[in-house]
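call fold(seq) -> tokens
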Amino acid sequence: MTQSVVVQVGQCGNQIGCRFWNLVLREHANVNKKGIYDEALSNFFRNVDTRYSDGHGINLSKGLIRTLKARAVLIDMEEGVVNELLQGPLRDVFDSKQLISDVSGSGNNWAVGYKQYGNQYRDQILNILRKTAEHCDSLQCFFLIHSMGGGTGSGLGTYVLSLLEDEFPEVYRFVTAVYPSAEDDVITSPYNSVLAMKELTEHADCVLPIENQSLVDIVNKINQMTCTGKMASTIKLQSTLISSQTEVKRQEKPFDAMNNIVANLLLNLTSSSRFEGSLNMDLNEITMNLVPFPRLHYLVSSLTPLYTLADVNIPTRRLDQMFTDAFSKDHQLMHADPKRNLYLACALMVRGNVLISDLRRNIERLKPSLQFVSWNQEGWKTSLCSIPPVGHTHSLLALANNTCVKSTFTDLKDRFVKLYKKKAHIHHYLHIDGMEQSCFTEATDSLTSLIEEYNQLDATKGQIINNVPRLSIAM
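ret:
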């Protein structure tokens, strides 16, 4: 069994990470009734006997669960969120040896995160990454979680990404990156996002872009359903969609609910790595089958159901409707329209009691409405994991490599250009050692080139290659 390490950077990254670790523990507790440390748990957790005086404990490869320690690295240049983690209900899952923090933050400045803190904490970050990797028998993947709009997540997050490529070139690098909305209150977020995009394009194996506005819209939709009584839906008292104090103010900024959706994405993405199934999909198969060109590794994700752990009492969707939902814009974690654009490939990761025949039948039903590139008309990758999410009979995560992502990138570039034309706020970046104006032009050139690659593929839409010459073999 392989292992994965979660690297959560910045406020957003650590808040999503907190939700992920909470949900993954609850999911395993629902399945693992005997308290035995098994291969499923070993994917993201070490089993440590802490009864020894040296304070480090001893790793146990089997037997009863003693103390579970997350395979995680927590990085933030402000202490608030990580201190909450270490003092909250998950405190025993982490320890200070997994944590790197500062007090002043990055001031919403990519250059501070990447150039200043990156150089300052490089050795310390590498040391923790190496120690975490040493605890793994077969390290397969790093999951990097961060935001794009702030300074620490975008700057230090992408710096860590480049370190991972240099230090662990054979280990896959999956990035979950939260993109700011157009109305983001961080005025420099277009700079930070475009500068970070260059690093993601060059150093990640696979990126799952998540739009902040999409998360807001999804949570608002669920709240609206509960308020209107549509589909007899209600929110449970302990739901992640409401605060423990049931304050109306918390529902206006439902960060817990938004982060819960992203954590749910990661739960489904890793389900085949953690549980058995009739058609499991390894993480390396995602990159092998969904990324035909190295730079075009941005995948549009859609989820059904969008909530998890029975937080919302909405009747289970019929199986066929679940597949239809997965290709609906309402269930995507970014604003885009894949059906009007071109699919390079698509993966369907199903959980629960679903038959392979059901999976194939729904693919055949949906295929006529989806346009695939002419050279990959059968570009589907599927998996079936037998263990459904808690509180549901089945779920589906769809990952699409689709040219529709260019609309998000184009909007981001436009917001960047609007600021950069006036050279607004540039001086905040240029006073950081190692930061030059060429960094901005190189980043925009990289993004422009990426958009153009998607445009070139889109230009082939509707083209069908007929009468492909076959290889002639001399007899």
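The two ends are 48 Å apart (CA to CA).
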